[in-house]
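User: Please predict the structure of the protein below. I'd like the answer in structure-token form so I can feed it into my own downstream comparison script.

Assistant: Understood. Taking the following sequence of 274 residues as input:
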Amino acid sequence: MNARNIFTELKRRNVYKVAVAYAVVGWLLIQVATQGFPFLEIPTWMIRLVILLTALGFPVALIIAWAFELTPEGIKRTEVADAERQHSRGGVWIAVVVVAAVLSLGLFFIGRYTAPKVTRTSESLAKSIAVLPFENLSRDPDNAYFADGVQEEILTRLAKIADLKVISRTSTQRYQSKPDNLSEIAKQLGVANILEGSIQKAGDTVRVSVNLIQAASDSHLWADTYDRKLTDILGVESEIAKVIAEQLQAKLTGREEQALAVKPTNNPEPDWWT
């Protein structure tokens, strides 16, 4: 049997049609696996398994297509089914290939242009934070300005980190220092994390307590207390901002790391402290 006869026989036995249909349907299955499995949190090895089985099944499908044919009466050997072959069957093959191709392209573009956006949105939300007003624990009510100043300085440092989404002080000022409905506040502000804290000033000593909370689970990601002299308090705000960035896994550029490390002023009593 020469090459021309072989190609003719392949065509007569629908091997070409099966090859095209299998390739399109296989591509569809791979798209479903690569685009859908991560969304459903199915392990990566399952994606590899689908790809491997699809590849291994291709030669098997061609062998079966050569030897057998699917007829209305069931699977028959090709020689037996030749006499029953209907011309209209070619239209069915075309329909199968076209539908599978459309589905494959649809899944490809959905995965290409939608899934990355969902991932980026999810990552952005995980790195979002609102700093609520700090509670003034000092006996002197005038020290409320001191608490506001510490909150503002922490916000200023966090806002300089491009990888973080930081809600402005204007938006958070209407909330109290330690609210009971953190999850609702986080939902209103569109953030995943809340920083709340308190300031206690006694003479020239200041205690700053902070709690970083994941609002959805109401769980503490990090908490700490800093006791400093007034002359050292400015460094605390940078330390807090740096730890928050680490806890939220924000990526800092070299310039941002330097900005967090720099002490803005040596003046221990800025205008908002007095």
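That's the full token string. The longest helix spans residues 15-39.
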